[in-house]
Amino acid sequence: MKLLHVAIRTLLTNGVVGATAFAVQTSNEPALFGVRQQVFCCERLEQLDALTGIPISSWSYAGSGVQHHTLEAHRDRLVSINPACCFARRVVVFHPADGQRSETLITGAPLFGGAHSLVSDPVSGALYLTTDSELYTLDPVSGQATLVASFTGSPYAWDFVNTAAMDVNGTVYAIGHEDSAHRYAVYTLQLATAQLTWIGEIQMPTGSSGFFLDLAIPPTGDWWASFRDTGLMPSTRGLWRINPGTFQATQVRYVDPPHEGLAFLAPTQQASYCTAKTNSLGCAPTISGEGFPSPTASSGYVLRAANVRNQSTGSLTFGISGRAVLPFGGGTNCVAPPRQRTTVAFSGGSPTGVADCNGTWQLDFNTWMSQHFTLPAGTTIQAQWLGRDAGFAPPDNWSLSNALEFVVRP
Fold it and tell me: Which domain, by its residues, includes 252?
């Protein structure tokens, strides 16, 4: 074990790390996040189901000075604005693995007026901040905002930008304020010049009155937006989908208070490979990875083997030298040596005396790294679960899952 540990350290020292191209699996879809206020409680960062908008996990942030407006994915972090005090507007950075939150004072932008939206440009690496009428670049580390220009090009003297977002092709769209017929102008926005070009409008239900709080655009499909009604139809508050071809808006879910910010975060690069060994009960253990693998988080990436024999022990074996197809224990070892093994996990499941496959082995890999040693961002890791199977005679009394290859994120 110690030699494996040293070998992996040697590989890292010699720089044998790197990203691997993956065939994206259908389950590896971008994750939808939102920030909103909880009445009589706190502010929350939520991961939302990207079909229903229902929260599936969340982190809460207490304190009278904790607020969040807008949300954007930028350089594998989630970024928001804290407008809690007009004299201390701050840029907020969340770690998407464990929800850790940090703030930096914004300088160079107006202290008054709304900070409505953030737009990340993955090509230039720049982060943009929009206010009602102006566009800025924003450094989330130093908090320095630099004016690009005031918005121009709107055909309406009364209009201003409420929210903006970039699509996968690099086109930035902005939504303006409502007119007397409760229509909301949609524009394309040039980040180099702050030029707006009108392309259509969103028609909200008759009787509604309010504004769009934030816009998030996935790689494919309808846009997502959060709407706050300030008139006589509070039922329109919450999450909406907008068809990018027709700008037809359809409510997904009533949420009150509505989300102040929405953002899609790119999925972790991961892919399963190799073949699991069918265990003595006729089940094939299946590995999966859930979350955000990161050496800078203390939790948030769970490697799990399902379909495991109950009341059994197993451990995760992993390496960074590539895939393998090596005979072992009556099955296949899928991880090229040198390999490291983690602490033993217990599958649980049905009580002793019952033999079935409802057990699960699991390990939070971020937690394990934080307690042992870290693998830097960009490292490609191969991992596989293995354990004992008393239903087979030695030396084949082993249970082996298939394998997972994934890339460590910052």
Answer: 31-265
